[in-house]
């Protein structure tokens, strides 16, 4: 009856049966209490488990090792390691010696929290108590060292195992294979798998999945597919995580045809595909501009009754927006609302950005207000998108009001926030206000950076204030990290609010001409074309500004040396 009540979660009834047992002339024993204790711990009702242990002792029943181990296990599973330690101390006080299981549970709990040194001390304590560590003890500590401590100490424990005549089992080997893969040492990982065959512990499903993941992360797709075939011949199946890793790698390398074939073949072979499997390929299609294929895959996903989460909806909405399919993106946004999903900050920011890009700033603010109503806090990305939208739509005063409100409320701002406002002020010819914000940026340790200099220089050139532009360039010479910053910008893609630059033939022609003149040392001619471009409203590439500014800095340095 007690077991039946526990299985149905009727714990109060189970405890009441302890009292009823006396009425029938029988008395609860340690098995009775252990049954209820075990279920309490499984359900995480540890305070009640502790109370039941106290009740057990008050009734004159001595808890046995199994009783204590139930509690140690329960406490360790929820991270109550101090309480687990107290139980072990209580065991010793009651002359119930902890066994290998007791120690291993607490060692596992300590390693899980990265408290490796405490776990090693516990191993020493168990040896002092004549309880010999087993392969589980060593595996737990080795894995703990690899995850949180020193790999050198992990390998030292492997040698210690060998010295004590312990055999490295499948778990030990898989821990080693995983570490080699994590470090990108795929030759060593493969060699360890080969040694497993020879040692009588052949590679298992975990080994193969780990190796495939490792090869993918190392960019060795050929080896990953070879391992996948070998795994199949050995009668094992990839798990979904491994399959998704291969899909991600294929999409990252723009091998979308192969990714699609893998997805279809995996489905036909009975592999369990999930939302991540489809979402990965969806993102790949959108990155490559293949909206039709992405939408086709979306339909296929829905037919298979794989329910998309907000993450997958964000992928398709962002993808459609980037390809200019705004109406379809809005349609998906409305669809997710109908399906009872709650949009997150990414969802709102994506749609707000689209509205701003299309000049529908009022709609963008309506959505921003809904976001606030839903208790979602607009972040710095939201602010930057709205500021950019207002500035682009000629509503600089409203942008300044939002900017000042945002700062007065103590909300986070970044370089993009300042650069957006500085650019807006420069376009309106309000250079003094722009310079004020540059000073403010410096005070907040947020720059200025390449974009700031570009905006100011462009505005000065457009206003014909060439002497000031020259003075500004001299100040830039004093900025120690400018050269390094410029080189970094050349080497990496600078992330903005999902804004992509369109191909503009005028922009490209002017940019190429300016760069070519700078390479020839003809900086005055380059500057003349730069001024003309600004007057025509031609947007130049980021690299053009960098090359031009570096060139002018070089010229100024040469002139300074000549004067000296």
How is the secondary structure organized here?
Elements: H1 2-7, H2 11-23, H3 30-42, H4 46-58, H5 65-77, H6 81-93, H7 100-112, H8 116-128, H9 135-148, H10 151-163, H11 170-182, H12 186-199, H13 205-217, H14 221-233, H15 240-252, H16 256-268, H17 275-287, H18 291-303, H19 310-322, H20 326-338, H21 345-357, H22 361-373, H23 380-392, H24 396-408, H25 415-427, H26 431-443, H27 450-462, H28 466-478, H29 482-491, H30 505-519, H31 523-536, H32 542-563
Polypeptide structure, described:
The chain has 32 helices and no strands. By secondary structure, the chain is an all-alpha fold. Helix 19 packs antiparallel against helix 20. The protein is elongated, with a radius of gyration of 33 Å. About 4% of the residues have low confidence. One of its GO terms (molecular function) is mRNA binding. This is Pentatricopeptide repeat-containing protein.
Class inferred from helices and paired strands: mainly alpha
Q: List the uncertain runs.
A: 480-504
- Terminus-to-terminus distance: 101 Å
Per DSSP E runs of 2 or more residues, the count of β-strands stands at 0
Average the pLDDT over all residues and give the rounded result.
83
| Helix count from the secondary structure assignment | 32
Major sheet: none
| Strand-residue proportion | under 5%
Shape: elongated
Helical fraction: over 70%
Estimated radius of gyration:
33 Å
InterPro entries: PPR_rpt, TPR-like_helical_dom_sf
Protein name: Pentatricopeptide repeat-containing protein
Keywords: Repeat
PPR repeats: 1-28, 29-63, 64-98, 99-133, 134-168, 169-203, 204-238, 239-273, 274-308, 309-343, 344-378, 379-413, 414-448, 449-479
């Amino acid at each position: 009856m007690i077991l039946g009540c526990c299985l149905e979660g009727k714990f109060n009834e189970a405890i009441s049966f302890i009292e009823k047992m006396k009425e029938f002339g029988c008395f609860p024993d340690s098995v009775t209490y252990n049954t209820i204790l075990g279920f309490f711990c499984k359900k995480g009702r540890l305070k009640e488990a502790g109370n039941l242990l106290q009740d057990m002792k008050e009734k004159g029943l001595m808890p046995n090792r199994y009783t204590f181990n139930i509690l140690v296990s329960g406490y360790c599973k929820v991270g109550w390691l101090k309480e687990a330690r107290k139980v072990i101390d209580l065991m010793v006080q009651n002359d119930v010696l902890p066994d290998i299981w007791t120690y291993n549970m607490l060692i596992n709990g300590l390693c899980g929290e990265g408290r490796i040194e405490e776990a090693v001390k516990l191993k020493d304590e168990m040896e002092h108590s004549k309880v010999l560590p087993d392969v589980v003890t060593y595996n737990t500590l080795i894995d703990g060292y690899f995850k949180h401590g020193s790999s050198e100490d992990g390998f030292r424990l492997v040698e210690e195992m060998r010295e004590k005549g312990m055999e490295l089992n499948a778990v030990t080997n898989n821990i080693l294979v995983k570490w080699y893969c994590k470090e990108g040492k795929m030759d060593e990982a493969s060699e360890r798998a080969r040694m497993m065959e020879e040692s009588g512990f052949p590679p298992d499903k975990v080994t193969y999945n780990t190796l495939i993941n490792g090869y993918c992360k190392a960019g060795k797709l050929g080896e990953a597919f070879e391992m996948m075939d070998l795994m199949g011949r050995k009668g094992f199946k990839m798990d979904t995580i491994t399959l998704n890793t291969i899909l991600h790698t294929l999409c990252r390398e723009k091998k979308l045809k192969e990714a699609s074939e893998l997805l279809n073949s995996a489905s036909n072979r009975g592999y369990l595909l999930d939302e991540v499997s489809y979402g990965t390929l969806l993102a790949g299609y959108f990155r490559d501009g293949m909206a039709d294929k992405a939408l086709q895959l979306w339909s296929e996903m829905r037919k298979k009754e794989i329910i998309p989460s907000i993450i997958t909806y964000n992928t398709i909405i962002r993808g459609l927006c980037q390809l200019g399919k705004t109406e379809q993106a809005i349609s998906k946004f409305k669809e997710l609302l109908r399906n009872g999903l709650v949009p997150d900050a990414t969802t709102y920011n994506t749609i707000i950005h689209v509205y701003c890009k299309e000049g529908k700033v009022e709609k963008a603010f309506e959505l921003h207000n809904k976001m606030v109503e839903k208790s979602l806090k607009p972040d710095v990305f939201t602010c930057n998108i709205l500021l950019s939208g207002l500035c682009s739509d000629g509503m600089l005063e409203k942008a300044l009001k939002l900017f000042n409100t945002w700062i007065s409320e103590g909300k986070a701002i970044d370089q993009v926030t300042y650069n957006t406002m500085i650019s807006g002020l420069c376009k309106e010819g309000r250079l003094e206000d722009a310079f004020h914000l540059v000073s403010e940026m410096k005070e907040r340790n947020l720059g200025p950076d390449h974009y700031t200099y570009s905006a100011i220089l462009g505005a000065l050139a457009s206003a014909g204030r060439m002497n000031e532009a020259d003075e500004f360039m001299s100040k830039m010479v004093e900025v120690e990290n400018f050269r390094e910053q410029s080189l970094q910008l050349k080497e990496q893609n600078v992330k903005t609010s999902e804004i992509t630059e369109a191909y503009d033939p005028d922009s490209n022609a002017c940019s190429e001409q300016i760069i070519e003149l700078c390479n020839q040392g003809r900086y005055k001619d380059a500057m003349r074309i730069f001024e003309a471009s600004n007057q025509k409203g031609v947007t130049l590439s980021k690299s053009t500004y960098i090359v031009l500014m570096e060139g002018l800095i070089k010229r100024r340095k040469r002139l300074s040396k000549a004067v000296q």
